[in-house]
Amino acid sequence: MLRSITLMAALASLASCTTVRVPAKPGSYYALGNDPGWTLEIGRRIKFAAGPYNTYVDAPAPVLLRSVYGRRYATDRIIVDVEPAVCVDSRSGIAFEDTVRVTTPRLIVSGCGGRRVPLLDK
Q1: Residue 61: what pLDDT?
Q2: CA–CA gap between residue 79 and residue 1 (Å, rounded)
Q3: Is a pLDDT exceeding 60 seen at residue 114?
Q4: Distance separating alpha carbons of residues 42 and 27, to the nearest angstrom
Q5: What confidence tens digit (pLDDT) does each residue in 31-87 have?
């Protein structure tokens, strides 16, 4: 029930975004996260895999939406929010240029994506 409500709220927020159709290149964006471990690749297709829940999405070309916080890729099976804010992977300590949130009907996860960026020492 809670997942259904969360998914409905996420889909409702799509209505407030401006649609911009952009042809994606294969392997053009990659993201990952932990607890549970997951990976995401966005190109001509959007591919998402998360374990141990055996959640897997392989959908055709996503629609790119501009949102208040960055950009959103959306299909009828998955929503990916990408915020341009430095994210440090909790397991590897590697910093990436984006903070990523993935929403599917079965799972909502957060992690890091985009290019690696150097961390500044204080």
Answers
A1: 74
A2: 19
A3: yes
A4: 6
A5: 999 988 999 999 989 999 998 778 899 999 787 889 888 999 999 899 999 999 999
Q: Are 86 and 96 in contact (CB under 8 A)?
A: yes
User: What is the distance between the alpha carbons of residues 113 and 85, in angstroms, rounded to a whole number?
Assistant: 10
Query: How many angstroms separate the first and last alpha carbons of the chain?
Result: 46
Q: Is the dihedral of CA 69, 72, 83, 52 positive or negative?
A: positive
Average pLDDT over residues 90-102: 94
* Tokens at 53, concatenated: 């829940």
Length of the chain: 122
Burial class (CB in 10 A: 0-12, 13-18, 19+), 2: exposed
Q: Which two tokens stand for residue 15?
A: 């209505």
pTM above the 0.90 mark?
A: no
3-state SS, residue 105: coil
* Radius of gyration, alpha carbons of the chain: 14
Q: How far apart are CA 114 and CA 87, in angstroms?
A: 10
